[in-house]
Request: fold
Amino acid sequence: MPEKPPIALILFSNELDRFLPMVEKERKVIEEALEHYDDSNRMKVIARSSVSVEEVFRLFSRYRGRIVLFHFAGHSGGEGLQFNKNFKDAELGKAIGLAELFRREASEGLLQLVFLNGCSTRSQLELLKETGIPSVISTRHPVDDQRALQFAKQFYRALANADQEQPFKELQTLDDAFKQAVAYLKSLYPLNVQKMERGVAFGFGTEEKEPWVLYSRNPYWTLSFEMAGDSKSFDELLVKQLIEAVQPFLHEDKTVESRIRQRHDEALLLFKRGIMEKSLRYLQEAKKQAEQYECFTLLVDILNLELQHELASLGTIEAPYSHFEGLHREKEVVLEKLALETEAQHIRDLAFILYRTANTQGIERTLKQLMELKSRAFLQQPGKFSSFRAKLFFHHSWGLIHTVENINPTLTFSHHLKALELWDRHPIFKKEYPRLYKLNLFNYLSIRHSYRDYSDFEAVLNKAQEIESRTIVDKTSDFHDTYHYRLLYLMNTGSYEEALSLVEELEEKISDLTRQKYPLRKNKLITLYYNISILLFVIERYDEALEWIQKLRKEIQKSTATRQDIQYFAYILKLLIQFEKGEANQLDYREPYIKKLLRDNDMLSEFDEMVLTHIRRLNKSSLASEDHKLYQAMLRDIESSEKKFKKVRGREEVKLWVKSKLSERKMTDILKEEFGQ
Reply:
């Protein structure tokens, strides 16, 4: 039983110049609606008038982890909520700062509902959705003071069952209470809004929709709380209400795994409370989904709980010996499948590590690791597959191995295509894991790009863009990947004007997402900045290329361990640009410094060392004929390195630059010729 009751924090602000007469009445009607909760020690109602920003933070600190409901009434707007600096003067509580308070309470505490009963708080709703708050009520446009009072009154009286003789029995849900309040106002007023008062700025609206909007991931939430310190036992209704209360905290992402885990946890909770029939029904629902989506880890937990159920009802089971034997055999099969899938993932991870480190650890060591990896039993026995994920890991592993070997591009493409075909044969997985499917599409584009084959590039990219992003993290990742591959496609097919337009669009998008506090990934930003630098280098806009390299360096400084291959080659790219700009004095001391820097950090590949050596020689050369021989030697070395390993950061760009020097043509002209433009 809880030692202290949860908190309903009801805050109000006002000011002399724009006094809202209904705010104090709103405080009274909300306190009256919730008073039976306060009286029974189920929920403590704390109401404050004329609060300052400092007081808000003090209350959140004092009652940290206990605030279940937050209500604000007063002047507000898209930028934040207006509080009272003192009795006469007002101050604005910025939406971003307040959202951090709500984020903490939603993730660490009990916060279920934020109700902003002010003017035009809809824009704040988008920010609050990202904090993880299960439910938010906000306003689309300015609100009349009298109607705001009536809406709040009807909503809280419905939610708290305040007009019933037994208020804690058959409680109304959040969704029902909201609909009842809306219906009440519709019966009294037309939907358009006039005489706006609850706003930071006054105005008139022509909205045809009701002002209030409800966002909720848990619309069935109710005000079902135990009395603090009460010792009464749980009954089935209380267990049901308890499950509904914890749902948004435990399973916010709503993936199939979280839904299965949710049903299992509910079944376990009911089992512990002796509600066996309902527990078993929930367990069978979870088992059916776990089998359908091959969630073997969850299946093991489900079977363990199923065995506990059978043990608890041992006296009612016919032929218990064979029954338990069958359940244990079923568990053994699931464990075998889980072991195989785990091994498949292990091999895929090793292949990926080899793919990312092959350039810096030496040829002999890489070849040895390749041979060891290829000899793994899992990669030699494709007929032993038992799950969708194991097959996917198989093709991913071989695709990475063939990429590192750089012997037969056809085999590389083949395994990536088979992975995509596997998704097509399992539409339920494609529907349930859209982001993972998109990653496979982007991986295919990455391989196409590495071999400079753009034959179906745009079609696959468009296919990936058509798949809807589900979460803010997915939206951010999709933004990174889409712009990354779109830019690569335009750069490598000679569409330079379109690529430059995309860069301008990209700058605006990054600025907008940063302002909205989207979780932009540093490694992805660094990659984008690098590709933009390469674009500007290729079209010979060297000063702009240096600006983007500087932006890249700033991002790297925020996360020094991110994309080391890019951050170290950026030094070499800058050196090439300085060579083009005729800054010989810079090269004399920067070339040995860069070589030492890369060597000290174990990032000096054979290719990097070769490029730095040739740049030093070119910088010292004073004859055109000698330069030509040096460029020829450099091209031979680059082409020789291609026979060893394909994946070397910057090789294609340097090779293009050397070709332009030998032919005395622009890099863009050479690219257009290579792609038949």
Residues 192-208, 230-239, 246-252 have pLDDT under 50 and may be disordered. DSSP finds 28 helices and nine strands in the chain.
